[in-house]
Structure prediction request, 93 residues.
Amino acid sequence: MDAEGGPPQAAGRGGGMRGEGGQPAQPDTSKDKVIIVEPQNRPQVTIERIAGNEKKTVTFKVRLNGIAGTDCTLRYVSTRGGVVEKKVFIGKK
Prediction:
């Protein structure tokens, strides 16, 4: 029962973080040299099963924070244990 004696009412629309606008807290990126802009707050993207010769494109939009460029490593990890890595340079040399 609620305060007026009626049936209980759900607080909010369900599932969200109540009292915080329903949005998760943004991480502090002020000291990060590379910030992932898209997909927001996700350092990884999950793709579905692909055939052995099939290719899928995964795109990350990044912003450099106080640096002209940097080396980074891109890593593909398979659920069956395979790992492929490639070192790339992003930004200006």
Observations:
- The chain is about 0% helix and 30% strand.
- The mean pLDDT is 76.
- Residues 43 and 91 are 19 Å apart (CA to CA).
- Residues 34-91 form one domain.
